[in-house]
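#lab-general

N.A. 3:47 PM
ok so I finally got the sequence cleaned up, no stray characters, all 264 residues accounted for. can someone with queue access submit it? mine expired

B.Y. 3:52 PM
send it over

N.A. 3:53 PM
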Amino acid sequence: MTVTSAGHMSSPVLVAQGLDAGYDGVPVVRGLDLVINQGEVVALLGANGAGKTTTLLTIAGLLPPISGSLTVLGEVAHDEGGRGRRVRRNSLSRTWRRARRGLSLVPEDRGLFPGLTVNEHLRLSKSKTNTASTSNTSNTNNDILDLFPALAPLRTRQAGLLSGGEQQMLAIARALATMPKLLMVDEMSLGLAPIIVERLLPLVRSAAAATGAGVLIVEQHVHMALAVSDRAAVMSRGVITVQGDSRELEERSDILESSYLGEN
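B.Y. 4:20 PM
back already:
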């Protein structure tokens, strides 16, 4: 089931067609069709166990696709459609190549180093992408912190001493410091109070507008995610049951709720 959405004229940063993904050759995600364009925020919604994180891990290169086609940032990562060709690399090679091309993932556990400060996280992330000078790196950090003003006075504080919301802001800021073309955020709301999530999700929208990156957010908080995304897809038991323009999906709560609750 598809709800028509307003088209984006920018180039796609992700194209998945008929993609099956899972573990040890057993599909968890089946027949995934998903496109994300530059500067566009797409929400992937669904209950626990729906296959959302498996989708992110496959796009990031941490899991190999089982079948179908996957193009990430212009590079064919997997293609069996018609030509029977598969691009074979080990997971570290896949992940490294995609990171170098501009993919950045914020995992659900945030992946921070408790003993490193806010500034150190941003400097470390920047150094992974290119050999910019110290002054350019400092300017980039300032630009990133402009998007997250609550972090600015905490530059020298260790990540382990930050609140949950501050840690999530740092995790997103660190990802943006790599100047990604495709940013993926897994379960931003995990362990956070709804009021904190309401403040964080719009920051992702602002980041997409400021950087031009395509953004894929995985969320269980349906209405919050719809409020900040351009398009959304609902996944249930490894299959996308409905996708389309977020505003239209929000208005069709009957379709949205039946697709989402179909997980139970």
